[in-house]
Amino acid sequence: MKKDYSQYFRRPSTKAARKRTTEDVQTIDFDSHLNIKHLGQGKHYLIQTYGCQGNEADTETIKGLLHQLDFKETTDERQADLILLNTCAIRENAENRVFGELGRLKQYKKSNPDLLIGVAGCMPQEESVVDRLLMKYPYVDLIFGTHNIYKIPEYLETAMLAKERVIEVFSDEGSIIENLPKKREFSHKAWVNIMYGCDEFCTYCVVPYTRGKERSRDPKQVIEEVKKLVLDGYQEVTLLGQNVNSYGRDFIDKDYTFSHLLNDLAKTTIKRIRFTTSHPKDFDDATIAAIAEHKNIMPHIHLPVQSGSNKVLKKMNRKYTKEAYLTLVDKIVKAIPHVSLTTDIIVGFPEEDDEAFEETLDLVNQAHFEGAFTFIFSPRAGTPAAAYHDTTSNVVKKARLQRLNTVINQGYLKGNKRFENQVVEVLVDGESKNKANILAGYTEHNKLVNFEGDCSLIGKIVRVKVTEAKTWFLLGERHE
Ligand code: SAH
Ligand code: SF4
Ligand code: F3S
């Protein structure tokens, strides 16, 4: 019988998660030698990852730690001794999917009583989620958040050997852990965290609470990581942060910003540099100049606008206006002529009336986006917007989303059409999911391309002539 709570019992606190201090950020080196254990010998794990690239990068760290403990990966739920869900809290439907999965996974506990089920990532950072897990999902053995991934070896030891449940979520962490092991998904493209957390507090968003205060990694560590990736044969890196344009804002000993980092990374011989996500209010001229100057910084910018209405933008705490956003787009387009711009938009935010929504459509038409993630506002517990008075019906919100998506999809097609009959460079990711001999990869502008080719091309950058543009992808043929 499992003891109900182990030495590890710490619930999240929204109050602590909201607090920001001026304390210096500590960088801690992870010492893997201290953690050499063979807990996973003969055992298999399975991880499901939800949410953003930050979570995908975290999953690679979790896998790295599990492999160090001698676990092996499986995709077969019946074979798994450990099933971990790395979760996302950004919208209610993301959370519902996870609760649904937990319900479904319960059956495997019957056939394998030693199976451990764990919930990690952003959802455990929320008080209400942990309460619900404790009340309704007693068979969940491990609950930990985004700040304590490095403690997995200890948690597993407790759960497996002492047969105790582990619930430990930190809400007030502000440190950076370096040198954690990683098992990367690809051997040709890699995520590289340049910062953690977020201090923007957009009023709808849960991330500043689930990821903690904004902490930039030391540029030396980032540059070293990219140099090492080059030596290991990597072609592409994607720099990750919730607002990459504020990189370095927290350094107290140096004046080193995102544009400095881009310029320094461009000098490594990595073939492709991407970054996400950008915040319009912090996108400075030096960054535009860096992208324009270096051929290995890709001409695709994901620039979430969220809304085209100044009234709504203010309520969202985005700190820019529609006009300022369009001026920025104009500057970017002038400096980087063939740039591809994509965005995120929320419809149905409290106080978004018809007129405000029309402003969003107008902005979309003016900005010529070539893609967008569009969402209906989802109130998140503990965020200011959850308490805003919302009078728009769901029917109207859905109709707005549909109208918006029609315009966005035209943008996707238009963005793809401009490459018809052109030769593009494609970094080949792998075989297309549906057809044999068909390869799939991304162009410099981040367009998906399918073309016929041999598997030996996977991981390479090849030239492809685009024969036809569809809404969601390009068709092409190999061009020598
Ligand atoms: N840091 C990034 C991305 C954050 S989350 C940024 O600032 O843009 C990704 C997207 O999810 C956001 O851009 C926003 O469009 C959407 N989103 C965040 N919170 C949401 C909520 N409560 N309801 C609906 N969409 C939301
Ligand atoms: Fe959320 Fe805003 Fe931070 Fe993006 S910048 S993660 S939307 S609070
Ligand atoms: Fe989701 Fe957390 Fe990313 S809430 S979007 S996984 S930072």
Please explain how this structure is put together.
With about 475 residues, this protein is of the alpha/beta class. It folds into 3 domains: about 10-170, Rossmann fold (3-Layer(aba) Sandwich); about 180-415, tm_1862 like domain (pyruvate-formate lyase- activating enzyme, Alpha-Beta Horseshoe), CATH 3.80.30.20; about 425-480, Nucleic acid-binding proteins (OB fold (Dihydrolipoamide Acetyltransferase, E2P)), CATH 2.40.50. The protein is about 30% helix and about 20% strand. It is built from 13 helices and 22 strands. The protein has helices at about 15-20, 55-70, 90-110, 125-135, 150-160, 205-210, 220-230, 260-265, 285-295, 310-315, 320-335, 355-365, 395-415; strands spanning about 10, 25-30, 45-50, 70-75, 80-85, 115-120, 140-145, 165-170, 175-180, 190-195, 195, 215, 235-240, 270-275, 300, 340-345, 370-375, 425-430, 440-445, 450, 460-470, 475-480. The strands form 6 sheets. Strands 1-8-7-6-5-3-4 form a 7-stranded parallel beta sheet, with helices on both faces. Strands 18-19-20-22-21 form a 5-stranded mixed β-barrel. Helix 12 (about 355-365) packs parallel to helix 13. The radius of gyration is 23 Å and the shape is globular. The structure holds S-adenosyl-L-homocysteine, iron/sulfur cluster and FE3-S4 cluster. Iron/sulfur cluster binds near residues 205 and 207.
